[in-house]
Amino acid sequence: MSTLLASLLAAPGLYRGRGDGAESGPFLARLVVAPVVSARGVVIDYEATSDRRGLHHVEHSILTTSEDGRQALHVCCTELPGVVQFTESRPGVFTAYDGGLTARIVITTPQPGSLTYSWWWTRDEGEPKEQFRADVRRTG
Predict the structure, then answer these.
(1) Where does 11-129 have alpha helices with state H?
(2) What is the pLDDT of residue 100?
(3) Residue 106 pairs with which residues in a beta bridge?
(4) Which of 19, 53, 109, 116 has the fewest Cβ atoms nearer than 10 Å?
(5) Residue 8: CATH number of its domain
(6) How far is CA 16 from CA 10, 95, 109, 110, 137, in A?
(7) Which among 34, 53, 52, 54 has a CA at the least distance from the CA of 43?
(8) For residue 63, which of 89, 39, 97 has the smallest C-alpha distance?
(9) Given a cut of 60, is residue 1 above it in pLDDT?
């Protein structure tokens, strides 16, 4: 079974597309996927922009395999208190720490050369819901 890490290592490059979300509204998404450290991980740089809000999300993440063999996504963005590790709980689903915000990131590769990247969270005790999602295709 191929992992998300293996899929991204096989298809590095620039991804562009559109997204939408309850808080963000429609936006343009740009992701750059690049292998790092002798292909032991990938860096994912993600930006979301819109005419209405300008640049409204910037994220720098590293996807790698953790010591226990599971994939881990180390995320740094303005919405989080520093670098937060999201651990893969099932294929493509990364859950975060127990903090003030229950969150997860879901990344899928529906077909070669395309990605979906979504943030899920809740501000209460309920189950996280998808808050925004980008659907992107590799352009280079």
Answers:
(1) none
(2) 62
(3) 93, 118
(4) 53
(5) 2.40.128.20
(6) 17, 25, 14, 15, 6
(7) 34
(8) 39
(9) no
27-36, 46-55, 78-87: least confidently modelled range:
78-87
Question: Does the pLDDT value for residue 98 go beyond 60?
Answer: no
User: What are residue 66's phi and psi, to 5 degrees?
Assistant: -85, 175
Say which residues have a Cβ less than 8 Å from residue 61's Cβ, sequence separation at least 6: 43, 44, 45, 46, 73, 74, 75, 76
DSSP state of 110: S
Report how many domains make up the chain: 1
Tokens describing residue 107: 């990344």
Q: For residue 126, count other CB atoms closer than 10 A to its CB.
A: 8
Q: What is the pLDDT of residues 53-83, one digit of tens each?
A: 899 899 999 999 988 888 999 999 988 878 9
| pLDDT for the residue numbered 37 | 86
Amino acid at 3: T
Q: Which residues pair with 21 in a beta bridge?
A: 132
Print the domain residue range for 107.
4-138
